[in-house]
Write a structure and sequence with these properties.
One of its GO terms (biological process) is transsulfuration. The protein is built from 14 helices and twelve strands. It has two domains: about 240 residues, Aspartate Aminotransferase, domain 2 (3-Layer(aba) Sandwich); about 130 residues, Aspartate Aminotransferase, domain 1 (Alpha-Beta Complex). About 40% of the residues lie in helices and about 15% in strands. With about 375 residues, it is an alpha/beta fold. α1 packs antiparallel against α2, α2 packs parallel to α9 and α3 crosses α8. It binds pyridoxal-5'-phosphate (PLP). Pyridoxal-5'-phosphate binds next to α3.
Length: about 375
């Protein structure tokens, strides 16, 4: 089944729901069993509306099963908890989504968990970091601020040979453009609050993997911590998934235009986007991704004050930290970093991150152009 058809129809089960082309929202916590046992009992464990989203996402990811969570962080922490043991060791890229890093290096330390952070660009870094008690290699590729990649197949092969679990945050590429399970990765997690939801109106998370792992996660991490998805959230997620393929095509086309425009602009020092042939890992990206999404970073030339002025003078880009919605956004992860903080975090000084939305791409280019022109006048 094609990915478009999965998004449009898979799991909708028209016969079961009276031919409803849009599935009903089972907005209930409890399923009674006095007369018929349908296999449902309590929405924290399973819900028919949530299951439709899970079927679609598992199929898109070429995985056996999926489980929805109340947010991306709920899925990420549950995935990590499912493979960690007390006093174990994890290897992870330094520039993962900051709360993921915080979960590992400030929260899990109270259970004796240690994490080694690497840049992640070379498989040898992961190999060197392994210890006898390493339980998982956690990846996020591309990293959603510096846009370097990790080699999914090479890391999966290394981890498998040592009996270590692998988890990948696949939010940036979406299951349309990257399928880590097919590369040998064990667990994929997503913040579905981004492209899958697509409208900046839900918080949602998903985990995918083997049937056995997902059944365990249902009873352990989802059942015990309780960060299940609400059925209404699942319904909005299904609605978002319907249009994911058309939206992603547009995000990709516009982002490629914006990245090329910025790269050619004399006021811009660097553009970080895996879709540009000048990206140092462009070939790796082509081997493991079939497309690119709409989030990228760049470093304008100029003082901090000039860069801050550039951000303020944008008219169409709103300022905010999230991404993956219909709206174009800018935020400034590197703007106020001094040299030491930039070295420690691996984030270039002056780095700005933009999420390219669904507005007219000509309007976005015009807006960036006028804001870059205003920098020269400061
Ligand atoms: C790459 C990445 N992973 C995970 C998350 C966490 O997702 P959520 O906000 O849905 O908890 C985010 C959120 O910004 C993210 O950017």
């Amino acid at each position: 089944m094609s990915k478009e058809d999965i998004c449009a129809h898979l799991g909708d089960d028209y016969d079961r729901y009276l031919g409803a082309i849009v599935p009903p929202i089972f907005q209930n916590s409890l399923f009674t069993r006095k007369t018929v046992n349908h296999g449902y009992s309590y929405t924290r464990m399973s819900n028919p509306t949530t299951e439709i989203a899970e079927k679609k996402i598992a199929a898109l990811e070429e995985a056996e099963e999926a489980r929805c969570f109340s947010s991306g962080m709920a899925a990420i922490s549950a995935a990590l908890m499912s493979v960690m043991e007390k006093d174990c060791h994890i290897v992870c890229p330094l520039n993962v989504y900051p709360p993921t890093k915080g979960f590992l290096d400030s929260y899990m330390t109270k259970f004796g968990v240690e994490t080694t952070f690497v840049s992640g660009e070379k498989v040898e870094e992961f190999e060197r970091a392994l210890r006898p008690n390493t339980k998982a290699i956690y990846l996020e590729t591309p990293l959603s601020n510096v846009f370097t990649l990790q080699d999914l197949r090479a890391v999966a092969e290394l981890a498998r040979s040592k009996g270590i679990a692998t988890i990948v945050d696949n939010t940036w590429a979406t299951p349309l453009y990257q399928n880590p399970i097919a590369c040998g990765i064990d667990i994929v997690v997503h913040s579905a609050s981004k492209y899958m939801g697509g409208h900046s109106d839900i918080l949602a998370g998903v985990m995918v993997g083997s049937k056995e792992r997902m059944e365990q996660v249902t009873h352990r991490e989802r059942g015990l911590f309780g960060a299940s998805m609400d059925p209404h959230q699942a319904w909005l997620l299904i609605r978002g998934l319907r249009t994911l393929p058309v939206r992603m095509r547009r995000h990709q086309e516009s982002a490629l235009r914006v990245a090329s425009f910025l790269e050619a602009h004399p006021q811009v020092e660097r553009v970080l986007y895996p879709g540009l042939p000048s990206h140092p890992q462009y070939e790796l990206g082509r081997r493991q991704m079939s497309g690119y999404s709409g989030l990228l970073s760049f470093v304008p030339g100029g003082s901090r004050e000039q860069i801050a002025g550039f951000v303020k003078s944008l008219r169409l880009f709103e300022e905010g930290p999230s991404w993956g919605g219909f709206e174009s956004l800018i935020n400034s992860p590197g703007l106020w970093l001094d040299e030491e903080a930039s070295r420690r975090t691996g984030i270039p000084q002056g780095l700005l991150r933009i999420s390219i939305g669904l507005e007219n791409p000509d309007s976005l280019l015009e807006d960036l152009d006028q804001a870059l022109a205003s920098m020269k006048r400061l």
